[in-house]
TrEMBL record:
It comes from Lentithecium fluviatile CBS 122367. Keywords: 2Fe-2S, Iron, Iron-sulfur, Metal-binding. GO terms for molecular function: 2 iron, 2 sulfur cluster binding; molybdenum ion binding; oxidoreductase activity; pyridoxal phosphate binding. InterPro entries: 2Fe-2S_ferredoxin-like_sf, 2Fe-2S_ferredoxin-type, 2Fe2S_fd_BS, Benzoxazolinone_Detox_Enz, Beta-grasp_dom_sf, FAD-bd_FR_type, FNR_nucleotide-bd, MoCF_Sase_C. The keyword Iron-sulfur applies. It comes from the Eukaryota. This is PK beta-barrel-protein domain-containing protein-like protein. Residues 530-622 form the 2Fe-2S ferredoxin-type domain. Residues 42-185 form the MOSC domain. Pfam families: Fer2, MOSC. Residues 251-355 form the FAD-binding FR-type domain. The keyword Iron-sulfur applies.
Length: 622
């Protein structure tokens, strides 16, 4: 087990803190990165002492986001950061970093040597007064980078140093003003946690084994500030999700048994698949799908239509796929398979999954047409169960022909919560049966005007239940699933309504089984090198890819006898995905729903059945 290095405990009884300045503020709207943002960071020193109480913290003061009663910052950090950033010290007055207390202490006293649950006992004219308890550490955010005129990347440096401030709660009230002094009473906690570790853990790499140890140690501290608890809990859940991403995954095809089937409508049926051998099933992310092979050798991908909190972090008890009877494969499944039959299945895959990386996600808009609701349904179930998203507002926009084709599970499986707004469109409502305002909201399909109207007004999020934060309507994320034409049209409408392209994720399905990827050779153009050295890590294999041979990366691996996994060979199922460790690859433009280029980041995943190198050296995690 790796142990985190703990800083040398400062002899706190010998430390005298002096209040240099005090400040109070109220949130106002500032334009930050071209967006109106509610913040209380802009302030100046106050001319009068602060009045503090146990219940209300600082009288006349309110924070925009964090729930700590008092924020303190060491005066020596002003010299450090202005020197580090080549900024004129005179331009940064006390309270520039948004602190309530600017504190002068010994040079070697900092957030790295002040510990959670330490107490600061203040004195005024020789009499003890206010008592504050350290309850957290500042986690530097985009508002701080904006305030200091620095890029967002600078925040990682701030977090690593720990020089970003301390949060305290009021244990005994009174007043604090410039010139007051305090002594530190060290915590009696058996394992002392430095205040700086909050920011250091929040910004630490998921690859670093120390990150988990830090997170667990922080979360065991009694009385931890709520926002810190949320941030570090999210970090720990990201670690758990990452560690379990391949939990129970199997290679190749595996027989799963149909243990239950449910007719959701006249043309839609759900199949519940479980392991007949009682071996664990692979964990999965909401929005992912199963690749299934039928006796006819037809390979089809069907979305997993259910999700529970354990689906991502442990072995789920079953998979549910919901299939609409359309063409040969789905008709065969409907007519020939029942409880007790077995299907050949590959491990769950797919990249149409929620973004869980943000501390405070904006509103999420889920848009589906017909059976495209199946991955959206699992995303919604996850949305209101997940640590990060459960208090985030969501809008579901679903398009169906009418109540006859509207799926019964739609209403049963949706979470009941005030944070979810459901909007239904019927393209062909049944006269005398489907009642607008009761069964559906609009006739037809969503229009450009509909999305412009939806995204025009601002909305509020309140993740910590402290102060609602107002966000512009186009500060939202969107997920779209449906037929290709529907997805393309809705994407255009969202972009016209000023929703950033990067905030839109899509997945398509097609009724046309004749759609196939054109041969790789037809799409190998001038941006592809003549040769590329491809390294398959895990197999210690290097091989040259040659443009004139026009092979996909999957075909190259097969030719070399590596036996890579594959499924549909059309770029849809994801069975052939490999992680790019170095370099880049391009996806043919006619592969439906795929990005045309991989980035050069190590987290990029490409579908090798339809990808070709666009660099001199390509390294893949095989």
């Amino acid at each position: 087990m790796v142990e985190t290095p703990m800083p040398q405990r400062y002899p706190a009884d010998d430390a005298t803190l002096t209040v240099v300045a005090v400040s109070r503020s109220q949130p106002v709207t500032q334009t930050i990165h071209s967006q109106p943002t509610h913040t209380a960071i802009v302030r100046s020193p106050s001319s009068t002492p602060l009045a503090l109480s146990v219940d209300n913290g600082i009288e006349g003061h309110q924070s925009a986001i964090h729930d700590a009663q008092v924020h303190a910052f060491f005066a020596q950090h002003y010299d450090y950061w202005t020197s580090r950033l080549s900024i004129d010290r005179a331009t940064w007055n006390w309270a520039f970093w948004g602190e309530n207390l600017t504190i002068q202490g010994p040079d070697n006293l900092s957030e790295n040597t002040v510990y959670l649950n330490d107490r600061w006992v203040f004195s005024h004219e020789g009499r003890e007064g206010v008592v504050l308890e350290v309850c957290g550490g500042r986690n530097p955010c985009s508002r701080l980078a904006w305030r200091c005129g620095q890029p967002h990347s600078w925040l990682a440096e701030v977090a690593k140093s720990g020089f970003c401030g301390i949060y305290l709660r009021v244990v005994r009230g009174g007043s604090i003003g410039p010139g007051d002094t305090a002594r530190i009473v060290p915590t009696s906690d058996e394992v002392a946690v430095p205040a700086a570790s909050i920011a250091q853990c929040a910004y630490s790499s998921l690859e670093d084994p120390v990150t988990r140890i830090m997170a667990e140690r922080i979360l065991h501290v009694p009385g931890l500030q709520n926002m810190n608890k949320l941030v570090i809990s999210r970090k720990l859940s990201m670690l758990q999700e990452r560690e379990s991403a391949k939990h129970g995954r199997w290679k190749g095809w595996r027989a799963l048994e149909i243990v239950k089937s449910v007719d959701e409508s006249s043309s839609v049926k759900s199949f519940y698949l479980a392991a007949p051998d009682n071996e664990p099933l692979a964990s999965y992310l909401p929005g992912q799908f199963l690749t299934i092979k039928l006796p006819s050798d037809q390979i089809r991908c069907w979305s997993i239509s259910s999700w529970s909190p354990s689906s991502t972090t442990s072995s789920p008890p079953f998979y549910r796929i919901t299939v609409k009877k359309r063409l040969s494969a789905s008709r065969y499944l409907h007519s020939e398979y029942s409880v007790g039959d077995r299907l050949l299945v590959r491990s769950p895959s797919g990249s149409f999954v929620p973004d869980w990386s943000r501390e405070f996600p904006p509103r999420q808009i889920y848009i589906s047409a017909g059976i495209g609701m199946t991955p959206i349904l699992s995303m919604l179930q996850a949305h209101f169960s997940h640590t990060t998203l459960k208090r985030t507002p969501a809008v579901l926009i679903h398009v169906a022909r009418n109540s006859k084709e509207d799926i019964l599970m739609f209403g049963v499986d949706l979470p009941f919560t005030p944070f979810l707004e459901v909007i239904k469109f019927y393209t062909s409502p049944i006269t005398g049966v489907d009642v607008r305002g009761q069964d559906f909201d609009y006739e037809g399909r969503p229009s450009a005007v509909f999305f412009t109207t939806l995204l025009a007004p601002s909305y509020k999020i309140d993740p910590l239940q402290i102060t609602p934060i107002e966000l512009p309507g186009n500060s939202s994320g969107a997920y779209i699933c449906g037929p290709p034409a529907f997805v393309d049209t809705i994407r255009v409408y969202l972009e016209e309504a000023k929703l950033p392209s990067r905030a839109i994720r899509t997945e398509t399905f097609s009724n046309d089984p004749s759609l196939r990827v054109s041969p790789i050779k037809e799409d190998v153009n001038d941006d592809v090198p003549e040769e590329c050295l491809v390294r398959f890590h895990g197999k210690a294999k290097e091989v040259k890819w040659k443009k004139r041979e026009a092979l996909s990366i999957l075909q190259l691996a097969e030719r070399e006898g590596l036996q890579p996994e594959f499924g549909c060979r059309m770029g849809h199922c994801g069975a052939c995905e490999m992680k790019v460790l170095k370099g880049a690859a391009r996806i043919p433009g006619n592969v439906e729903g795929q990005e045309h280029d991989s980035s050069e980041e190590a987290t990029t995943v490409i579908r090798t059945c339809c990808a070709v190198p666009t660099c001199a050296t390509l390294e893949l995690d095989f």
